[in-house]
Amino acid sequence: MKYGVLGTGDVAQTIATKLVELGHEVMMGSRTANNEKATAWAAANGRNASCGTFADAASFGERVFNCVQGIHAIEALTAARADNLKGKILIDQSNPYIYKDGHITLKAEYTGDTCLGEEVQKLLPETKVVKTLNYLGSVMMTHPDELSEPVTGFYCGNDTEAKAVVRQILTDFGWKETFDMGDISMSRYTEMLGAFWVPVFGQLGHMKWGFRLITK
After folding, report:
1. DSSP state for residue 145 in the 8-state scheme
2. Model pTM?
3. Cα–Cα dist 47/10, whole Å
4. Which residues contact 14 (CB under 8 A, 6 or more apart)?
């Protein structure tokens, strides 16, 4: 399978590296074709790893991960171009956070009766957007088995078949427990949940933890 990964930060590097390890071809996308971090990642990850612009990666991938910083997600996805993402599954991991004075808040336009996940789906109506793994640290996204007990992989989106694909991707990443939260509007809650890392990290000093849904 060919994957595009939009972004060059910790989340993008974690996801892209895991996909290569699983045997997929991966192109990391950024604003420029010769981004230093993307070029270094591609050089370190063998013949199945490459890099290009956002549009290059979106065109290359049969499935695409959006791993850019949330406040820049709409800009990046616009650069990736809707025609390159038409009919594809977009796994959205971005959060629209503003960091200030040791705290996180959601950027104002992604609060109230909408959220970033919903706005991404509005921007790309012919793309199957599924939100997942945006509520925990990148270190745990592809290694949940490092914890002593299973944690829950939450996901949401409008397309049932796309969500089934993402559930399988989570399984491939090592997630033993997953939970379908419903349509893309439910990403309002995972985007808020992601801010929980600030106080927990402040107490633990690391990101190796997660959430588990326990039901009756």
Report:
1. G
2. 0.96
3. 21
4. 138, 139, 141, 142
In degrees, rounded to 5, the angle at the alpha carbon of residue 205 between the alpha carbons of residues 38 and 186 is: 65
CA distance 1 to 10: 22
The residue to which tokens 């909408």 are assigned: 114
Query: What are the residues whose beta carbons fall under 8 Å from the beta carbon of 23, sequence distance 6 or more?
Result: 48
Using alpha carbons, select from 196, 191, 11, 195 the residue that is nearest to residue 110: 191
Looking up tokens 């370190």 gives: 44
Question: Which long-range CB contacts under 8 A does 111-119 form with residues at least 24 apart?
Answer: 114/188, 115/185, 115/187, 115/188, 115/191, 116/70, 116/73, 116/92, 116/187, 116/191, 117/92, 117/156, 117/184, 117/185, 117/187, 117/188, 117/190, 117/191, 118/184, 118/185, 118/187, 118/188, 119/74
Length of the chain: 216
Q: Which two tokens stand for residue 36?
A: 């230093």
For the record, the structure tokens of 198 come out as 């600030």
Chain position carrying tokens 């491939």: 172
User: Residue 141 corresponds to which tokens in the numbers above?
Assistant: 């996204």
Cα distance between residue 106 and residue 97, in whole Å:
5
Q: Cα-flanking dihedrals φ and ψ of residue 23, to 5°? A: 100, 10
> What's the token pair of residue 9?
């930060």
pLDDT digits (tens, 9 = 90+) for 62-90: 999 999 999 999 999 999 999 999 999 99
